[in-house]
C-alpha cells in the first residue's frame, strides 16, 4: 500500500543525541545516526525539530540526579523545542499538519521526562504542551522560550505577584531570570523591579526592565536597606533572600535545597501559558535573550553543554539549525 503523504515525509530513522548511561555530557552524550523515530500516542503530534534549547535540568538529569524517576536508558535529552507538525494523533483537536509549534515537551520535568527528547530530528509531544509559534519569532527564538518562561510565570503566580508589588530577582541574567524581569515589569506592571548579576550584565538587566541592577560582585543584596514584597531566587540563595523580603512578603525559589518559609517549586509545562503570553511575545514586549555564543548547530551540542555548564550563560542557549 502506498505510504500516506505524512508517512512519506517521515523517515523510519533519525539523527539524535543519545546517552546510554548517566554521566557528564562530554563523557556519555553521542550523536547517533540511526535512532528510531518515536511513535505518537493518540493525544500527541510528531514535530520535525527545527530548533531546540538547553536548560540546566538537561545536565542534572544526564548526571543521574533524577534517575529514580527518569525514563529508561538510553535517553535523548532536551525539553524545549520549536518545529513543524508532521504527524497528528487521532485525539488531537487543534493542531494540524504543517503547523509551526513550540513548547516544553515534559509536563513534569523530573517525573518521567520523555525518553526521546528534543535534541533529535523528530520528537513526539502531547498537543496540550504546545502552542503555535508566534510569527514574529524565528525557530531558535521560539525554542528558547518555553521551560524558562513557564517557570518565570509559575513562580510569579505562586507568589501572587501583582502590579502594586516590588520584586528582587536573584540571577536576573539567566534563562529564567531574564523572563522574570520582563514578565514582572511588562505583564504584571510591577511597581519596582530589582535584579542581581555580575558587572558586565547590569546594563542587560536594565534593558529588560529592571529599575535597580545590583552587582553581586560588589554588594550583598541582603545588606541593602531596600526590602521587597517578592524575592525570586534562581541562583540558590533562598536563605539570604529571606533577609531581603518585606514583612508579609514571600521568597520563591526554583533551586533544589530551598527550605521553608521560602517556597520551592518545580515547573509544570503547559502550552496554555505560552498561548496566554502570546500577545507579549508576538509584539516582542517580552522577548527571549539568546546567549551571544549561540545558536549552536546540531553538530555542536557538546560545545553548547560545555557553555551551559559554566553557569555564565546570558539568557538562553539555542540549538539551531537541527
Ligand atoms: N524548579 C524548577 O522548575 C526549575 C529550576 N531551574 C533551576 O534554576 C536555576 C537557574 O536556571 P536558568 O536560569 O536556566 O540558569 P542559567 O544557566 O541560565 O543561569 C545562568 C545565569 O546565572 C547567573 N548567575 C550565576 N550565579 C549567580 C549569582 N551568584 N548571582 C546572580 N546571578 C548569578 C549568571 O550571571 P553572571 O554571569 O552575572 O553570574 C548567568 O547569566 C538552575 O539551577 C536550574 O536548574 C530552572 C528552571 C526550572
Ligand atoms: C528542583 C529543581 C529542578 O527542577 C528543574 C526543572 C531544574 O532545573 C532543577 O534544578
What binds here, in terms of ligands, is:
NADPH dihydro-nicotinamide-adenine-dinucleotide phosphate, (2R)-2-ethyl-4-hydroxy-5-methylfuran-3(2H)-one
Total strands: the figure is: 14
Helix content: 10-25%
SSE string:
HEHEEHEEEEHHEHEHEEHEEHHHE
Compute the gyration radius: what is it? Answer: 20 Å
Report the biggest beta sheet as strand number plus sense, adding barrel if it closes.
Answer: 6 strands, antiparallel
Rounded average pLDDT: 97
The end-to-end distance, rounded to whole angstroms, is: 31 Å
| Portion in strands | 15-25%
> Low-confidence runs (pLDDT<50, min 5 residues)?
none
What class do helices, strands and sheet pairing give? alpha/beta
- Shape descriptor: globular
Describe this entry's structure for a reader.
24% of the residues lie in helices and 25% in strands. The chain has helices at 5-9, 25-28, 56-62, 139-143, 146-158, 175-187, 202-207, 238-241, 271-276, 278-282, 301-309, and strands at 13-18, 30-36, 44-53, 80-88, 100-104, 122-126, 130-132, 166-170, 192-197, 212-215, 228-233, 245-253, 263-264, 318-319. The strands form 3 sheets. Strands 3, 4, 5, 6, 7 and 14 form a 6-stranded antiparallel sheet that branches. It has a 6-stranded parallel sheet with strand order 10-9-8-11-12-13. Strands 1-2 form a two-stranded antiparallel sheet. Helix 5 crosses helix 6 (175-187). The protein is globular and about 60 Å long. The two termini are 31 Å apart. The model has no long low-confidence stretch (mean pLDDT 97). Bound molecules: NADPH dihydro-nicotinamide-adenine-dinucleotide phosphate and (2R)-2-ethyl-4-hydroxy-5-methylfuran-3(2H)-one. (2R)-2-ethyl-4-hydroxy-5-methylfuran-3(2H)-one (2XX) binds at residues 56-57, 60, 109-110, 254, 256, 266-267. Residues 56-57, 60, 109-110, 254, 256, 266-267 line the site of (2R)-2-ethyl-4-hydroxy-5-methylfuran-3(2H)-one.
Amino acid at each position: 500500500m502506498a505510504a500516506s503523504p505524512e508517512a512519506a515525509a517521515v523517515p523510519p530513522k533519525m539523527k539524535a543525541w543519545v546517552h546510554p548511561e548517566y554521566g557528564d555530557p562530554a563523557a556519555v552524550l553521542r550523536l547517533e545516526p540511526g535512532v528510531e523515530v518515536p511513535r505518537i500516542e493518540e493525544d500527541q503530534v510528531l514535530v520535525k525539530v527545527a530548533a531546540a534549547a538547553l536548560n540546566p535540568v538537561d545536565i542534572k538529569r544526564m548526571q543521574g540526579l533524577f534517575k529514580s524517576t527518569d525514563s529508561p536508558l538510553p535517553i535523548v535529552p532536551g525539553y524545549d523545542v520549536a518545529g513543524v507538525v508532521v504527524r497528528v494523533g487521532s485525539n488531537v483537536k487543534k493542531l494540524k499538519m504543517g503547523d509551526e509549534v513550540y513548547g516544553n515537551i515534559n509536563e513534569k520535568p523530573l517525573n518521567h521526562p520523555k525518553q526521546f527528547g528534543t535534541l533529535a530530528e523528530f520528537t513526539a509531544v502531547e498537543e496540550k504542551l504546545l502552542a503555535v509559534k508566534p510569527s514574529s519569532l524565528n525557530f531558535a527564538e521560539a525554542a528558547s522560550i518555553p521551560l524558562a518562561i513557564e517557570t518565570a510565570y509559575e513562580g510569579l503566580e505562586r507568589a501572587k505577584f501583582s502590579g502594586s508589588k516590588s520584586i528582587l530577582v536573584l540571577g536576573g541574567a539567566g534563562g529564567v531570570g531574564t523572563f522574570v524581569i520582563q514578565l514582572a515589569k511588562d505583564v504584571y506592571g510591577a511597581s519596582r523591579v530589582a535584579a542581581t548579576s555580575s558587572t558586565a550584565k547590569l546594563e542587560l538587566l536594565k534593558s529588560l526592565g529592571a529599575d535597580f541592577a545590583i552587582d553581586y560582585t560588589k554588594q550583598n543584596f541582603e545588606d541593602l536597606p531596600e526590602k521587597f514584597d517578592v524575592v525570586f531566587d534562581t541562583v540558590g540563595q533562598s536563605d539570604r533572600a529571606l533577609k531581603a523580603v518585606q514583612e508579609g512578603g514571600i521568597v520563591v525559589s526554583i533551586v533544589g535545597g530551598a527550605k521553608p518559609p521560602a517556597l520551592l517549586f518545580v515547573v509544570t509545562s503547559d502550552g496554555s501559558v505560552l498561548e496566554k503570553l502570546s500577545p507579549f511575545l508576538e509584539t516582542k514586549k517580552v522577548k527571549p535573550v539568546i546567549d551571544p555564543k549561540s545558536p549552536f548547530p546540531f553538530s555542536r551540542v557538546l560545545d553548547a553543554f560545555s557553555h551551559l555548564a559554566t553557569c555564565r550563560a546570558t539568557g538562553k542557549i539555542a540549538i539551531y539549525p537541527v
